[in-house]
Amino acid sequence: MRRLLAVLTLLAWASAQVSIPFWHTAGPPGNRVLEEAIQSFNASQKAYRLEARYVGDYREAGVKLLAALRSGGAPVLFHGELSFLPRLAQEGVALPLDAHLKDLPKDLYPEMLRTGQVKGKTFGLPLGLSVPALYYNKDAFRARGLRPPRTWQEVEEAAARLAGRTAKGLVVSTDIWSFNALVMSLGGSLVRDGLPAFTSKEVVEALEMLYRMVQKGHAQARNLAEAQFAVADFLRTKAFMGIGPTTALPVVEAQTALPFAVGLAPLPRREGGTVPLSGAALAVLKGASPEQAQGAVAFWLHFLEPKRQAAWVRTTWYLPLRKEAEKELADFLKDPERQAVFAQAEVGRPWSQDPELVVWYGYLEEALERSLKQGVRPQVALEEAQRKALAVERK
């Protein structure tokens, strides 16, 4: 009888739990911390149960989600890249969460919370946010008596000094994130007043600088499909500098032994320039019940516990989202290079909060590739991208 009662109690408890299907994009090495958080959340309370599934990187996950939204089978909770969030909100796919966010920790960084907002409403709960870093080959810099560049002019000068017959000073990616980081550092933006600003002063200046280095043979351009080759260029000393998020180095170190000392420096900035807060957020999708939405918020708060945040930061090099977590990270942030790069959070701003950008950015990436890989003049390539983006906007 006791055994029967125990079984019945267990079945009643399981049926009372709110199930939350969860698609995430956390691969190695951060997946270990996220999976531990999911397991400990499920074990720590009886009201909710996350059913997690890894669905690939940001772009793969976005494609799978769109397919699931059309055919059915979309999850309740989705871990997606920040630039995808405004579109989900505009289309009514992501649900506003402000009603469930009444008792947040007081030490959360406001600007980081703003990355999940669209037009003043919260549609995303930031999970991992990073800032860009200028990575450089310390051995090559020492050999040539160079110091880490502090301005973009110094980046150009270093690229010229480092370039040779078989190597380039800088590897340049033609993806929108990398280019936008450069534009923001100059004080510009890819979008103004809800419209594309691909021909604005800072955007043109940014592409002209990259074009100039490529044309002189001081930089190598790689498109998104060649991202693996961009990393290989750096690792095989075919290039000595590159721009990437803080999270890039732990991923590379988890996969291979580095053949030289890697340095990292803050992205050069002009006065008034900023750096992008990029990464991913949790979104609760349409069809979710209020209980499921509340469960998603409960998991996010569980993930934000200071010790868990510290483990997440140490493993992934994402920024800590809470000030309390920094107490656990004193030794981690003692490294002067790491400290300087992480300090960019003070000038970090959401990199994309415009729903239309996901429609336009393909035209910009095409323009970047045409200019940097095919030699089309920057102004010409950007004007064409602007025309195409505006034509879509008018439809």
TrEMBL record:
<dbReference type="InterPro" id="IPR006059">
    <property type="entry name" value="SBP"/>
</dbReference>
<keyword id="KW-0732">Signal</keyword>
<dbReference type="Pfam" id="PF13416">
    <property type="entry name" value="SBP_bac_8"/>
</dbReference>
<feature type="signal peptide">
    <location>
        <begin position="1"/>
        <end position="19"/>
    </location>
</feature>
<protein>
    <submittedName>
        <fullName>Sugar ABC transporter substrate-binding protein</fullName>
    </submittedName>
</protein>
<keyword id="KW-0813">Transport</keyword>
<dbReference type="InterPro" id="IPR050490">
    <property type="entry name" value="Bact_solute-bd_prot1"/>
</dbReference>
<comment type="similarity">
    <text>Belongs to the bacterial solute-binding protein 1 family.</text>
</comment>
